[in-house]
Structure formats: structure tokens, C-alpha cells
Amino acid sequence: MGTGIVSILLHTLSTIYTSYHASLNSLSIIFFVFNVFLFTLIFMISVLRYTLYPATWNLMIQHPVQSLFLGTLPMGFATIINMFALVCVPKWGGASVQVVWGMWWIDAAVSVACCFGLPWQMMTTHKNSHEKMTAAWLLPIVAPIVAAASGAIVANVLPDPQHALWTIVTSYVLWGIGVPLAMVVLVIYFHKLAVYKLPPQEVIVSVFLPLGPLGQGGFGIMQLGSMAMKTFPKTETLHPMAGEILYVLGFGVAIIMWGFGLVWLFFAISSISRSKFPFNMGWWGFTFPIGVFTTSTLTMGEELPSAFFRILGTAFAISVTALWLVVAAGTAKNVLYGNLIEAPCLREIEKARQMKLETEAQFGA
Asked: How far apart (Å, rounded) are the C-alpha atoms in residues 80 and 290?
């Protein structure tokens, strides 16, 4: 997700700063290719893990935190879909249009499955408590919001207006599935922070996660409005002005969500500024939430148009790229020394096993 959003940001900057188009576009393609490699590698490792050791699947699903990260699968895939639509389809044409459309439908289905299934699992199986809640609750819920934004990008490259219409309407439904539910979780999370204070230092980076649904939700509703304005007249959908109304309403909703995002950005920066936290895999929580908030900022700069939003978005994009370099370097170093990647569900099983052995030894003595 973090690598994919950097590739998208660099591509967006290449369309804004045309004098640097060649270099920025080349960088975005490099990150895109690397993202495809990372996604394929991690996906294959995961498939092998659950195939060779099927018991780990049930352990993972029943874990109240680790299971939530299944939502990152469709979100990571969505970044690949976006770049495929933005870069590959215009160059390759032909069947690539149908390929990206099929990829998007798969991503949308998996996103809905995560958004419906994992919260239901939390209600019926997991043992949750308010004081231990983290913003990771948002991960499966943000997935359909990301798929909705991707749907607008995919619809833009579909030559058949009717196919584009189906994609846009479905994307509005996906947006409606994710955004209201994310707002519900944000209310609970705010109450948790107010009552039980900040999260532990190990997961303090999770305070950036609320930027995800707000940034991507704003970006997605603007893109959908733009595509509705383009597609609805061609397909004679609703009223002749329906597309224009959705376009204006989309920008209005997006700028309100952007303002709400500033609140959570302030909370996040204030939280980490007063904390000393060790490097862990959670540091990747910096990149994607800030990245999607940046895409919303850059899009508003182009739609208004506004030099303020464009310059601010550029500053955010540079910061996200710098953060990616820092976190990637830390990840490579810690993976090399073998002290970064672990499975929480297996760690807890090992702790329970160790306690059992100690108890047996005590009674045996």
C-alpha cells in the first residue's frame, strides 16, 4: 500500500508539473513495478503459509488484531489497478482495458467481503475491549472506499459508456458502504483516546490511520463526480444535469472531509511528537494514510484550481516519498537481522504453551 501510493503520487505530480514529466513518470513506473513485485511476493508467501500450515488460518482469523489486516490485501491490489489504468492501458490498449476492469471487480468483491465479514467476526468471535481498541479497526472498512476511488479511475479508461456507468454506480455504493461505517468507528476511536489516552508506543503510528478514509473518501467522491458528469449525459442517466450536480456535491463533500482530516492530522502529529517509539512494521502506517490525504489535496488543487492546494499537496507528496525511503531502509535493515516479521497469533499460542509447561513443571516439582 505504501509503495503503491508513492507511485500514484509521482504519476500525479508528473501530470501537474509537465516540465518534469519524463523524470517523475519514470520514477512512478519504477515504484509501480517494485510494488507489483512486492505484492506478488507477499501474496505468494501468504498462500504458501496457509496451504502448508492450514491451522494458521484459523488462528489468524480468530485474532482480534491480526485478522483486521486482511483488509490491506484489496487496498494494496487497488494501487496496482490504479497504476495499470493510468499507465498500462493508454500504452497497451486492446485487451488491457478488459483486464483492468476484471481486476477491479475482483478487488471490489474482496473489499466488500472484508468490510462485511471482519466486523461481523469482531461482533461474534473476538474478545474486544474499549481501552485496547486501535485505529486498525478501520482497515477492513477502508477497503471498499479505496475500491470506490479505483472504480472512478477504471471507469475513465473504459470505452463503453454503459460499462463505465455500471462501474460508477457500483463505486458510489462502495463509497456508501465504507465512509459512513468509518465515521462510526472514528467516533468510537475519539472517545477511546479521550477516555483512555494515547495508544501504547508500539502502535502509536496507528493514529495516522483515520486519514485513510477521509483522504481516500474525499478523493474518491471527487473522481466519481467528475466521471458522473462525463458519463451520465452519454447514457441518458437520470436528469441531464445529474452528472453536474454530483460533481459539485462531490467537491463539497470532499473539502469537508479534507477539513476533518486536518483535525486527525493534528492529533497524529501531536501524538508522535511527544512519543519515543521503536521501529516496527507499524511504521508503514505513516505512508498510505498521508498519501491518500495527499491525493485528495492535489485533486482539489486541480479542480478549483488553487495554487495553495497544489503547493501543499506537493509538499505532502515529497514528505510521503521521504517517509517511504526512511521506512523502507528501516524495514530492509530489520528484515536482514530477522527481528521484524512475526505472527501475533502464533506468538500468543507460544506464550500459552510456555505457561502450560511452567505450570506442569511447578506441579510436578
From this structure: 18
